[in-house]
Design a protein that fits this description.
Number of domains: 1
Distance between the termini: 19 Å
Pfam families: STAS
Protein name: STAS domain-containing protein
Order of helices and strands: EEHEHE
Radius of gyration: 12 Å
Helix content: 25-40%
Length: about 80
């Protein structure tokens, strides 16, 4: 199960997104959909914290790698999963 905690954190409107839980083949699509929605809403003013995310299989890793690549391309800040 994934937990998304999204909050506005500072006066300039940075959105902080903390994702925790297990990411695997069963919820990789949900993960991709949720981070895409947040990214569209927040733009480059988002900080993603995946330090509490446990990626358990190749589908999960593929979803994380795709997101990190896209986020960094647009200037986003991503803290990788602890088991990276």
């Amino acid at each position: 199960m994934l937990n998304f905690n999204v909050r506005m954190d500072d006066p300039i409107g940075t959105t902080r997104v903390q994702v925790a839980g297990m990411l695997d083949v069963h919820n990789a699509t949900e993960f991709s959909h949720m981070v895409h929605q947040v990214s569209e809403a927040a733009g480059t003013r988002a900080c993603y914290d995946f330090t509490e995310l446990d990626v358990v299989d190749s589908a999960g890793w593929a979803a994380v790698r795709t997101f990190v690549r896209d986020a960094q391309e647009y200037g986003g800040d991503v803290r990788p999963p602890a088991n990276a």
